[in-house]
């Protein structure tokens, strides 16, 4: 079954260290419930990103996308199914977005 990488994007620049602990706990609970609802489709439950990511190009190193909040890897029958699962993400419900990429398998 194809694998899909879901990249979570926060509505605002994402820095988990500046979010109040109670809000982080609520986010983690919602995340855990969402991941749990997908069952065996989850290949890698992912992690949140620390701030300060970098983009590397031939021209050098610059700041990464400060809205990137984390990732998840799932298996789905097709791209539409992966999109359907992504639409139910807690980050989407909170006004953020999820970028979905199909992994190239050989």
The 3D shape can be described as flat
Give the biggest sheet. 4 strands, antiparallel
Radius of gyration: 14 Å
CATH superfamily: Dimeric alpha+beta barrel
Query: Could you please say which CATH topology applies here?
Result: Alpha-Beta Plaits
CATH architecture: 2-Layer Sandwich
| Total individual domains | 1
In helices, the fraction of residues equals 25-40%
- Summed up, the helix count is 3
**SSE series:** EHEEEEHHE
CATH class: Alpha Beta
Explain what the structure shows.
The chain is of the alpha+beta class and 106 residues long. The chain has one domain: Dimeric alpha+beta barrel (Alpha-Beta Plaits, 2-Layer Sandwich). 28% of the residues lie in helices and 30% in strands. The strands form two sheets. Strands 2-5-1-6 form a four-stranded antiparallel sheet, with helices on one face. Strands 3-4 form a two-stranded antiparallel sheet. The longest helix has 17 residues. The mean pLDDT is 92.
Task: Name its key features.
single chain; 106 residues; alpha+beta; Alpha-Beta Plaits; 4-stranded antiparallel beta sheet; two-stranded antiparallel ribbon; 3 helices; 30% strand
Helix and strand arrangement:
Layout: E1 3-9, H1 21-37, E2 42-44, E3 54-57, E4 60-63, E5 68-75, H2 79-87, H3 90-93, E6 97-102
In brief, what are we looking at here?
With 106 residues, the protein is of the alpha+beta class. The chain is built from 3 helices and 6 strands, in the order βαββββααβ. A 4-stranded antiparallel beta sheet has the order 2-5-1-6, covered by helices on one side. A two-stranded antiparallel sheet has the order 3-4.
